[in-house]
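Hello forum,

I keep getting stuck at the same step: I have a sequence, I want structure tokens, and every attempt I make locally crashes halfway through. Rather than fight my setup again tonight, could one of you with a working pipeline run this one for me? It's a single chain of 155 residues.
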Amino acid sequence: MTQREAFGRPRAACNACGFVHFRDPKVAAAVLLGDQGRVLLVRRAVDPRRGFWALPAGFVEVDELPDEAAAREALEETGLHVAVGNLLRIRRTSNPDKPGLLLTYQGQVIGGALQASDDVSEARWFSAQEIPWDDLAFETTRESLHDWLAANSAQ
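Reply #2:
Ran it on my machine without issues. Output:
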């Protein structure tokens, strides 16, 4: 494999057979759950950013749509069944070594009992004043929370 111009960009390609390697982004989905002026965050129990707070989120599996992944991840991480609503934002993830896209959805709790599980150590509702801004795992979480605060202050 050598680097050469292919399809408008430098890409790894095989000079012998013509194969071109395309670096495709990993797709992840998150759900922002708000309830009575509070937002649900989970404390990550795995790297990257172990110990920091984020929205319930994870990678989309090959056999599911992103909104289905958001609902599955919420259930796995928090024990809550959620109805996934509108797509709020699509952003690039911040790790240049592992390019990715994060689709963040609005969600509503429709059942279950809050309990941290899977790859989180804690799941907790935060009021706007309690959001742990200095301990957020990702810039995408920070952006989503700013949008949530703006939308809730307008109501």
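The first helix runs from residue 66 to 78. If your local run keeps crashing, start a new thread with the error log.
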